């Protein structure tokens, strides 16, 4: 069965320090294809365009280009998995779900949150409704919380643009280790790219083993991989349960990462309604701090 190709994701390239081949640059810019192999396959199949023209592996990207990813004209059969999933907000264009920890958002594996969405969301009545709803951004495997979902091709494009233009405010909660200032800003590069985060300590309690636990509210201004985890570790206050960036001798195993995407705030791209969508805080946080 054939369908009209639909652009499902777009990316506006910022000014680059040096030019990169499309096959290299495009790795990591889309949520629906995250691997180098997948990007090369999409380019080969003509599903990636640069400024409205078909992109090729050897094309050079310098900055200012609009790169778009198209839905294949062949309906792909992907698995559907069944897991408990809380839908916090939903309308005809988009949804927000509370991602459980310990699951990938998307990718080539069967057990991804993307493959669990269909049974939990209502079908969109819009003409450009997607066969399968698409996550707009990513949360790390061990991170829980608010995940934005696009239900139409237009919604995916518009929401991606909001992220590109930093028009979506993300707020996280974390529990960190060690004494730290009441508030601050962290502005240090990650993978040779600018990265900026703000934090405010909401509460703290003494700990015989860890010196102090802090309940911290975080606002990442950029979206680098593991940004909050790396930034907090860089100032000597790693997130509790972080097996990658925690201090030696301060690992906490078996409880998971104490990092939760608490809310998303943005203007709805179609209704123009100002949305503030919050998701419940995990119970493990409440065992250390009296969060409502």
Report on the architecture of this protein:
It contains 5 helices and 16 strands. It is mostly beta strands and 292 residues long. The chain folds into 3 domains: 7-70, Structural Genomics Hypothetical 15.5 Kd Protein In mrcA-pckA Intergenic Region, Chain A, CATH 3.10.290.10; 86-168 and 268-280, Pseudouridine synthase (2-Layer Sandwich), CATH 3.30.2350.10; 170-260, Pseudouridine synthase. The strands form 3 sheets. Strands 7, 8, 9, 10, 11, 12, 13, 14, 15 and 16 form a 10-stranded mixed β-sheet that branches. The model has no long low-confidence stretch (mean pLDDT 89).
List keywords for this structure.
292 residues; mainly beta; Pseudouridine synthase; ten-stranded mixed beta sheet; four-stranded antiparallel beta sheet; 5 helices; globular
CATH architecture of the largest domain: 2-Layer Sandwich
Global outline: globular
The average pLDDT is 89
Briefly note the CATH topology name of the largest domain: Pseudouridine synthase
Computed over alpha carbons, the radius of gyration is 20 Å
| CATH class assignment of the largest domain | Alpha Beta
Count of discrete domains: 3
Report on the biggest sheet: 10 strands, mixed
Write down the secondary-structure element order: EEHHEEEEEEEEHEEEEHEEH
Total beta-strand segments: 16
How far apart are the termini?
A: 50 Å
Q: What is the strand content? A: 25-35%
Number of helices: 5
